[in-house]
Write a structure and sequence with these properties.
The complex is a heterodimer. Chain A has 3 helices and 5 strands. Chain A is α+β, with helices and mostly antiparallel strands. Chain A has a single domain (about 1-125), classed as Heat Shock Protein 90 (2-Layer Sandwich), CATH 3.30.565.10. Chain A has a 5-stranded antiparallel β-sheet, covered by helices on one side. The longest helix of chain A is centred in the first third of the chain and has 18 residues, at about 35-50. By secondary structure, chain B is mainly α. Chain B has 3 domains: about 5-95, Four Helix Bundle (Hemerythrin (Met), subunit A) (Up-down Bundle), CATH 1.20.120.1810; about 105-150, Winged helix-like DNA-binding domain superfamily/Winged helix DNA-binding domain (Arc Repressor Mutant, subunit A, Orthogonal Bundle); about 165-193, no CATH class. The longest helix of chain B has 21 residues, at about 105-125. The radius of gyration of chain B is 25 Å and the shape is elongated. Chain B starts with a helix and ends with a helix. The chains are: A alpha+beta, B mainly alpha. At the A-B interface, helix 1, helix 2 and helix 3 of A face helix 1, helix 3, helix 5, helix 7 and helix 8 of B.
């Protein structure tokens, strides 16, 4: 069991490459290169689902990675203005392709958009690797 | 019924029609109804510095291949299969491109070594290798492997004439903040006998 790794940064899409680097470092102990690349894409998708695509960078994005020997959990929390609520939806994934992409890349995911604070979570299990 | 569920059911019907050959337009409709997925994924890879139009083209061709190769009997959603196929093609496209940003020579060489080792180990193990397995094969540390893999994504180059937020382009700002030492050196040179 590894203790959580936390990353906090201004809520700017341009800074999400920092998240990708951290995902790579956090996942490298238990996942294959291909799984790491999938997880990097998924976490980027998750973060983008929280950020307001037309908004400024007033908020902060906090990302916490927790891993055990079998899986990695990533929790993204946005404090401040985020993606606006649309049509009463609060799952954040008003863009249906985001859901499909996350379905394809990780085992579980959930997003909840709120006023002033939004949260997205995912879990990816590693494949059973036969180490020789 | 949600729009998403409606779309999934529609896809299932389209694939059934495609399999029986009953509806010759089913293939076109399947591609058209998933073009949004191709666009969405192409945009996610656009930060790599390649023109978005080129990436959309790669993603669209991958989508057509996915429609042709999809087997509904396997019990996987088409969108899952298409996502994996499109991502695979986009990654291959980037791997086949050279660097436009000059990574340090050490990293370039290590990236090429890691890439070869990845292909070799994938073949031998029948799966994607772990980072420490790649490190062992290349005789370096796992952190070096991660660094090399990131360097392999360093394709992005931006023109110095490109707009930069609210500021003037870099080309207009270069040399704007005059180096005091340089200014003094120029004065000394001008005043020298």
């Amino acid at each position: 069991m590894t203790g959580p790794i936390e990353l906090s940064l201004p809520a700017e899409a341009d800074l999400l490459f920092l998240v990708r680097l951290h995902v790579g470092a956090a996942a490298s102990r238990i996942m294959t290169v291909e799984e790491i690349e999938d997880l990097q894409l998924a976490v980027m998708e998750l973060c983008m689902s929280l950020l307001d695509p037309h908004g400024g960078a007033d908020g902060r994005l906090s990302i916490v990675f927790t891993s055990d020997d079998e899986s990695i959990e990533v929790v993204c929390t946005l404090t401040g203005p985020g993606r606006p609520l649309e049509d009463g939806r609060n799952d954040g994934l008003s863009e249906p392709w985001s859901t499909r992409i996350l379905d394809a890349l990780v085992d579980e995911h959930r997003t909840s958009i709120g006023e002033g604070s939004s949260l997205a979570w995912l879990r990816k299990k590693r494949a059973q690797v036969d180490r020789r | 019924m949600t729009k998403d569920l409606q779309r999934r059911l529609q896809s299932r019907e389209e694939f059934a029609a495609l399999a029986t050959g009953a509806d010759p337009d089913a293939r076109n409709r399947l591609v058209e109804s998933h073009m949004g997925l191709a666009w969405h994924l192409a945009r996610r890879f656009a930060s790599g510095g390649e023109p978005l139009d080129d990436l959309v083209q790669v993603a669209s061709l991958a989508l057509v291949n996915a429609v042709d190769r999809f087997d509904p009997e396997r019990g996987v959603q088409f969108s899952t299969f298409a996502t994996k196929t499109i991502i695979g093609e986009l990654k291959r496209y980037f791997r086949d491109k050279g660097w436009s940003v000059r990574a340090p020579r050490r990293l370039q060489e290590l990236y090429l070594e890691v890439r070869d080792a990845e292909a070799d180990l994938s073949q031998r193990l029948g799966r994607s290798p772990m980072v420490d397995e790649l490190a062992g094969a290349c005789g370096c540390r796992p952190t070096d492997v991660l660094e090399a893999l990131e360097a392999g994504k360093a394709y992005r180059s931006i023109s110095i004439d490109a707009p930069s937020g609210d500021e003037d382009p870099l080309a207009d700002r270069l040399g704007f903040d005059v180096d005091d030492q340089l200014l003094r050196a120029e004065f000394r040179s001008d005043l020298s006998p």
